[in-house]
């Protein structure tokens, strides 16, 4: 709640003005029944038509002022809600982009999407409605009770006697509501995950005719959301019937007590009519207050989920570590790492690269090749050992400085729904000639020139409107465009034909001779000319050296080479 108030602080002046306007409009609403009672009991008996019209005009003016005040205040409340939610959404998105990979794994992407969309919507709805009803309802409630006490204290006691039952009902329902809304949002997270998986894998689902299976799986998730939504709906829906029950009981008692008092000469008909109106106003105010509690329960549950992300501690803090005195550009010093801290995914990795050297990394699926790259980029922190760049531990290098050293193509990299030029530039304000040159090196220029709109050709999300090889060449262009100190190609040539792959390697050797390169590959031909090659298996280095050395010393490497290149696995093939 404290954090929510901090978000509302910049809008306090607008909120204050809006609340004052709302207050004045609500006072006008409270005056109308009082004027009506005055007309019936004091003005009508005088049989003065002109005076009746004067007080009737006052009622119309009060009603008109109340309507205009409420419209103006509601518009101001909407602007405050929009501005507040925009800032919350901005901070949440910003925080998500800086979460460590470990934190993203913990919260899960579907949950983060849900918090950024449906949870922020609930907060927006709460902030807006709290301003609209949060002032009006309490004033109508308290003001109505005060006016009725002034009109007839005995009848007012009927209203006051019902209030404890109303407050107890609201308290019990609200107390049960927040945990139920939390459970509901968790179910929504699961549904978002299911939808995301199905949209992402729509092609393979259709190709394998598994649409019916996925529909069944989604139905299970959707039914769980419905079940939890029904449970919270049934719980919160108790409020309105109970309020109507209290309203009807109260109205009945007011009429009965009022009839006896009028008959005894202790009250007047106009007062009883005003009481009926005030009683309706007060009970409607109570309904609004119960609605406020429902909205608050949902909104606070959502804001707690948002705050959990925004307040998440920084995991990858910058640490002051001593400078390592060596001449190597990249050093892995006995690195061990585990994702879940129960079984090591990488074990005692130890190798060094000088500036300009090329490292080839090969091994079976799940051997830890991509994990090695993630540690170098400090997406995760190592459990033991250290990773050094120019003698500096990656833990001591600020995030922006570290990542600007790299040009990288990930194994499952992504292209955005934008032009080819912007996908390569990626907001870095690179000169056009630099972008063009990178595409030539990546062997992408030839197919870009064949497109009718060339560089302005607009790609679909994930580059689904171009081939896999064309996509990889654009991704490599992006990695090369900023002349990185370290180039990482994580299985980035798997969709390239052998000729294009060979030309790419020649371009890299000719124009990036001072760039340290790490190539993760499944093809021997992609790494056989590397200065150094390591073979990974189950997270450990089982072979290390040049292509020729590994053919002699590493059985696993020799088997891969023979299976891919047959009898020509002797290092002579280019």
Walkthrough of the structure:
A hairpin with a 2-residue loop joins strand 9 and strand 10. This protein has three domains: 2-310, Up-down Bundle (ABC transporter transmembrane region fold); 319-405 and 485-566, 3-Layer(aba) Sandwich (Rossmann fold); 411-483, Rossmann fold (3-Layer(aba) Sandwich), CATH 3.40.50.300. Helix 3 (49-98) runs antiparallel to helix 5. It starts with a helix and ends in a 9-residue tail after the last helix. The relative contact order is 0.08. The chain has 574 residues and is of the alpha/beta class. The radius of gyration is 35 Å and the shape is elongated. Strands 6-7-8-3-9-10 form a six-stranded mixed β-sheet, sandwiched between helices. The chain has a four-stranded antiparallel β-sheet with strand order 2-1-4-5, covered by helices on one side. Helices cover 64% and strands 10% of the residues.
Tell me the layout of helices and strands.
Layout: H1 2-8, H2 12-43, H3 49-98, H4 101-107, H5 109-151, H6 153-200, H7 202-207, H8 211-237, H9 239-263, H10 269-310, E1 330-337, E2 346-353, E3 358-362, H11 369-376, E4 384-389, E5 392-393, H12 399-404, E6 406-409, H13 420-425, H14 432-441, H15 445-448, H16 468-480, E7 486-490, H17 498-511, E8 516-520, H18 524-527, E9 532-537, E10 540-545, H19 547-553, H20 555-565
Parallel strand pairs: 3-8, 3-9, 6-7, 7-8
Antiparallel strand pairs: 1-2, 1-4, 4-5, 9-10
């Amino acid at each position: 709640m404290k954090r929510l108030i901090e978000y509302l602080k910049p809008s306090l002046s607008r909120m204050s003005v809006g609340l004052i306007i709302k207050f004045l409009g609500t006072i006008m609403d409270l005056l109308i029944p009082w004027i009506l009672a005055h007309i019936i009991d004091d003005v009508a008996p005088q049989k003065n038509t002109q005076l009746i019209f004067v007080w009737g005009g006052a009622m119309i003016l009060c009603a008109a002022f109340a309507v205009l005040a409420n419209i103006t205040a509601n518009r101001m409340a909407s602007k405050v809600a929009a501005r507040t939610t925009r800032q919350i959404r901005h901070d949440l998105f910003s925080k998500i982009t800086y979460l460590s990979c470990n934190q993203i794994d913990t919260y899960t992407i579907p949950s983060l999407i849900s918090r950024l969309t449906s949870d922020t919507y609930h907060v927006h709805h709460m902030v807006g409605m709290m301003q609209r009803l949060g002032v009006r309802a309490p004033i109508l409630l308290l003001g109505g009770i005060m006016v009725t006490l002034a009109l007839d204290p005995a009848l007012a006691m009927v209203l006051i006697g019902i209030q404890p039952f109303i407050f107890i009902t609201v308290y019990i329902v609200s107390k049960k509501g927040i945990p139920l809304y939390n459970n509901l949002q968790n179910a929504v997270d699961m549904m978002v995950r299911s939808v995301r998986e199905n949209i992402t894998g729509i092609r393979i689902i259709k190709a394998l005719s598994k649409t019916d299976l996925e529909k069944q799986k989604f139905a299970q998730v959707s039914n769980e959301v419905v079940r939890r939504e029904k449970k919270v709906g049934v719980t919160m829906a108790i409020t309105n019937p109970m309020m109507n029950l209290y309203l009807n009981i109260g109205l009945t008692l007011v009429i009965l007590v009022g009839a006896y008092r009028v008959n005894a000469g202790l009250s007047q008909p106009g007062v009883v009519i005003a009481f009926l109106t005030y009683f309706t106003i007060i009970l409607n105010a109570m309904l609004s207050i119960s609605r406020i509690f429902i909205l608050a329960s949902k909104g606070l549950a959502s804001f707690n989920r948002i705050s959990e992300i925004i307040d998440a501690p920084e995991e990858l803090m910058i640490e002051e570590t001593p400078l390592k005195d060596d001449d190597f550009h990249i050093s892995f010093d006995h690195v061990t790492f585990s994702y879940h801290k129960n079984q090591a995914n990488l074990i005692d990795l130890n190798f060094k690269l000088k500036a300009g050297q090329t490292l080839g990394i090969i091994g079976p699926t799940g051997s830890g090749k991509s994990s090695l790259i993630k540690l170098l980029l400090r997406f995760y922190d190592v459990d033991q050992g250290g990773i050094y760049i120019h003698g500096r531990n990656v833990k001591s290098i600020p995030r922006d400085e570290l990542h600007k050293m790299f040009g990288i193509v990930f194994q499952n990299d992504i292209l955005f729904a934008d032009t080819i030029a912007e996908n390569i530039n990626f907001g870095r304000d690179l000169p056009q000639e630099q972008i063009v040159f990178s595409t030539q090196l990546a062997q992408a220029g030839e197919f870009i020139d064949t497109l009718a709109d060339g560089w302005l050709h607009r790609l679909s999300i994930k580059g689904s409107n171009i081939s896999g090889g064309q996509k990889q060449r654009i991704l490599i262009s992006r990695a090369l465009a900023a002349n990185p100190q370290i180039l990482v190609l994580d299985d980035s040539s798997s969709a390239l034909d052998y000729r294009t792959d060979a030309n790419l390697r020649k371009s890299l050797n000719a124009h990036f001779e001072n760039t340290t390169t790490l190539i993760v590959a499944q093809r021997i031909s992609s790494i056989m000319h590397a200065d150094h090659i390591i073979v990974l298996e189950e997270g450990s280095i089982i072979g290390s050296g040049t292509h020729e050395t590994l053919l002699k010393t590493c059985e696993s490497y020799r088997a891969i080479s023979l299976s891919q290149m047959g009898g020509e696995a002797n290092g002579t093939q280019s």
